[in-house]
Amino acid sequence: MNNKVIKSVGIDIGTSTTKLMMSDLTLGRVSSQFALPHFDIIERKVTYVSEIISTPLINEEEIDLTQLVAWLEKEYLQAGLTISDIQSGAVIITGETAIKKNADALIHYLSERAGDFVVAIAGASLEAVLAGRGSGSYEHSMKSKGIVANIDIGGGTANVVLFQQGKILETITFHVGGRLIEINPSGKVLSISPSIRPWLFSKNLQLEKGRLLSLTDLTKISTALAVDMLDCLAGKRSIHSLDLLVHSSSCEALPRIDEVMISGGVGQLTLAGPPSSIEEAAKYNDFGPLLATSINQKLIDYHFQVIKPLQTSRATVIGAGMQTTKISGATISIQANRLPLRNIPVIKISLSVEEIERNLLIGKEMFGSNERLPFAIGLSGSVYLTYEKMKDLSLVIGTLYHKYFPRSEILVIVCENDMAKALGQALQLQFAFDVICIDQINIGHGDYIDIGEPLTETIVPVVVKTLAFRGESNENKNNFA
Amino acid sequence: MNEGQIELIVQKVMEQLQKRFTPDHNIARENVKEIIEKGLVFREQDWKTSIPQPAFKEGVAELTASTPARIGVWRTGTRPLTKTMLKLQFDHAAAIDAVSSEVLEKYLEEFNLFTVETCYENKEVYLKRPDKGRVLTDDAVDTISSRCQKRPQVQIVVSDGLSASAVETNLKDVYPALIDSLKINNLSFGTSFFVKGGRVACMDHIGDILEPEVLVLLIGERPGLVSASSMSAYMCYRPRKGIIESDRNVISNIHPLGTPPIEAGAHIGTVLRRMIEQKVSGVKLEL
Fold first, then answer.
1. Topology classification of domain A4-122+319-323
2. Cα–Cα–Cα angle for A358, A361, A363, nearest 5°?
3. CB-CB: which of A36, A385, A403 is closest to B267?
4. Do A386 and B16 count as a contact with CB atoms less than 8 A apart?
5. ipTM score here?
6. B105-284 adopts what CATH topology?
7. What is the pTM of this model?
8. Which residue from A163, A245, A437, B161 has the least number of CB within 10 angstroms?
């Protein structure tokens, strides 16, 4: 097969700004001609980048759908692409926008209109990972010995991901963002985000709408914010003691961070010098420039090595456009007429008999209402499967699945190991329902998965939406219902 | 199927499985356990040596995980550790054994494979004269002509090649998965058999005799120090004398730690179907 190019779009709708990018992802064979075929994305190229616009809002709590869609259509036109050209990508609704009233409607609306296999995702930890991949932190961590943290600071939140040797260690998100306090050029407070109020209160930094603040007053706030966040990242303060500032975290305590990159809109501002007057500080009608200055100045007091990011404001959108789509193994079992499948919850099963039945029952309880396709089975474990064991496994899974979901016409299995074709074939030969069995995708309990239409006869694009990080699962569940 | 029947099937399967997935042969295991505890047997992890206190632990782990080669095994002075040397000799011996030994009959009986021979005479001649392993004996020609279905869509042939243990280790997984994949791809197959002392190009001679549309040869590979039981699946559209190497396709390195045997078997059907569809094999085949 010659290398195939797929067009991928990334759309990032953030608290304060919205942007879009288009890219070409080149698929190529990465295994030798003597081995089983294995394909992967071998090149990622940005082909179009939009202007950064202010996220259109009707009021403080509602996104202006009509205006947003009109803008998207204009951008697609300008990029010279139609919706049918787009084969993959992601719309990410980030930070505070995700809690805006109509975010759910927006997600559904966009996932249908942005392109065929454009998935909608949200969640602070995922946003952190995407930003880290888009900013260059991920690549940098492969060449670096230590732990690299990417701090992506946007309007509403600061999303931090820790990489080591290209592996994701932890994520943590703070209520730290440039748009949390909005001011006008004379220093008058226009609004204060509810998410920062408890922290301000605890610091005795009471603010109210309409109050006039001096550059010194504002700097005091931004410095306190920067210090608390950096203290936490440096391990000087525990995550627990900063409850009011921590939005969510994947762990109780962070490992020692060696290097940091700062991306996001505020990351972009750290590259500029400190504002000299209140008018200059308020040029975006918020305290973003001051926050950037404080972080810049305070960073010197910590042991972190600061690395210049490759991308700042556009880190998340680039991550969303280029890094969300994965490629399945090329020896899989699929029924093309059943694809694409979207938002399938995953029930993870390890290879023991009691476990299989127990987990299927758990799945039935959680997702049983969807009789056609309640969930996908995630098979983990790296044990070597003989044909005999694989056959038994297929018999158990198939029989039990049919027993508990007699009305289901389709069984979806996602394996970590390279075994999908053998397992899928064995299932197809024994059972009447259709089988989609793909492999070489790492998947966790509580993840949701999208499986796209085949890119070639034997490869499907896959997007795994990880919601498993503690503290986020409830908040985001509804987005995928 | 009614509810009761399903219950029954599930129960039966479960019982069987309990037996298989839980440690079987308890008694035999006990003995082995005792031997291991006494330190009489080296398991794979007992051979492992590593760099004491590496300066960059994660980096070393990444490198050693990326290859089965003997890296990061530490040293004494400028020489390898005794354990490393012994393991190297052990693996070398296993490689030699794999070449010189013969496939036990019971592994072939499982799939009703009968045995024919090439003109290889014996292992010594086999190694010196590759050409002899490419031609079947007159007896063999007679046998397959009388016992095998003529002009099958798919002909499956198994051969020891350079490693008898490749067949013993992998055939039980590759073969049934291959049969499944033929069924899924709606391909019919003829009478499978085993060739003793075969070389890859014995496919051509067999092709001339049976005239299959496509032929797949599962053959033991030259043993290496990583695996002595690695198998290859060579595939060819209308094999016959005069075929050149670039007309053949291969999936190599099939063994439990390499290309997974069940997945290799499952993929062969797809390759063969494409050969039949495109009426071509080798480098011209679009996969």
1. Nucleotidyltransferase; domain 5 (3.30.420)
2. 110
3. A36
4. no
5. 0.82
6. Rossmann fold (3.40.50)
7. 0.80
8. A245
